[in-house]
Structure formats: C-alpha cells, structure tokens
Design a protein that fits this description.
alpha/beta
Length: about 210
C-alpha cells in the first residue's frame, strides 16, 4: 500500500513528517549556504547525485526500506516558478526515495473548509497573493519583498480575480515563516503549528 509522505519546502530547509506522529523533522543538506533571493535547493543541482543519495538515506531512516511505495506530497512556496517545480519533481522522483511526487502551493493548503479564499505569504523573494478556488490557483500576483506597500496589497486582494470582487471571500495570512507582521490585519493568521497540522494528513487526490 502506498505511503504518503507530507513535506514542506521552507525558506531554509525541507520539513518531512515523521512516520508515526504529526511532528516534522528537518532535512538539511550539509554544505548548502544561504543566498539572498535564491531558494536554497537551487544549490542541489551542483551536487545532485550526492544530495539525492543523502535524501534517500534520510527517507529510508524515517520510513523504512520499502521506498518504492512512497508518494511525496510536497508543499512548495507560493512563488515557486514552473521551472523550479519541474526541478523539484525531477530531483525527488529520481532520488530513489519514492514512486511518485505531487506538489501544491502553501496557499492551497491553508484551508480545507473553504471552496474560495485569498492567501497571502512571503518567501525569500516575494510576497504572493493567491486566489484559490476549488483547490486550484486561479490567480496570483507577486510583490518584491524589498519594495511593497501593505495598503496596496490589501486593495489588490479585493480585485485579484473577477469571481471575488465584492464577494467577501476570506483572507488567510500564512505566517509559517513568522514574517507577516505587516499583514495581520488583512485576515485570519495561520501559525506554523496550524499550518503543519493542516498538512499532517493530506489528501493526495487534491494535490
């Protein structure tokens, strides 16, 4: 039987859910340095075989030797580009630690109860507004973290998609990285613990 392994790519590491609890542990590749505005996993490409083996050994230690049964359910930052998503998929799929990889953005994981909502988050590069409708990203807008006006972002959130203009959909502020103080008044703040609780049990069919 396939085993779903929830994972979160954060601003600095990869969190992997423990096998027998709802807690997460960090996978950190030795020798990876932090570069401003560049996601850390970009450096995996320079040492790809080594990083893949290290990750495979890490997953084997957590989930046992039957790696071919694993499905990695990876939660990526909201501003992850299409090319970055391809790299993430290929890196983990070819690591030998799983049989399949599925991805969704952090914004898509913020609520299981609402069919439509706005999410806002901040990565190492951008602030991202997303309109989520029926588990899909319907619209998104980015703002440079070094040049933004919270008031402008708040107003933009009301007009991000025609479906939500004047509709009063809920807004979720993703404070997973503890960097969203400027936006607390925009909507319901999601703490790191609340976020991890939401994805500890994840529906792969919706990813």
């Amino acid at each position: 039987m396939a085993k779903t392994v929830p994972m979160i790519i954060t601003n600095k590491d990869i969190l992997v859910k423990l096998r027998d609890s709802d807690e997460f542990t960090a996978f950190e590749m030795p020798g990876i340095e932090e570069n401003l505005n560049i996601p850390f996993y970009h450096q995996f490409a320079k040492r790809i075989a080594e990083c893949q083996k290290y990750f495979k050994d890490f997953i084997r230690e957590l989930y046992g030797k039957h790696l071919s049964k694993n499905i990695l359910a990876i939660i990526v930052p909201d501003d992850t580009s299409a090319l970055e998503r391809i790299f993430i998929k290929e890196f983990f799929l070819n690591s030998g630690a799983c049989k399949a990889v599925v991805q969704m953005t952090m914004g898509q994981a913020l609520s299981k109860e609402h069919q439509r909502y706005i999410s806002i988050s901040m990565s190492t590069r951008n602030i991202t507004l997303q309109y989520i409708g029926n588990n899909e990203v319907k619209a998104q807008k980015y703002y440079d973290i070094n040049n933004y006006d919270p008031k402008v972002i708040f107003e933009d959130s009301k007009r991000l998609h025609i479906d939500i203009e004047y509709a009063g959909v809920p807004v979720f502020v993703n404070n997973f990285n503890l960097n969203m103080d400027d936006f607390f008044e925009m909507g319901q703040v999601i703490t790191p613990k609340e976020f991890m609780d939401k994805i500890a049990v994840i529906d792969v069919e919706k990813v």
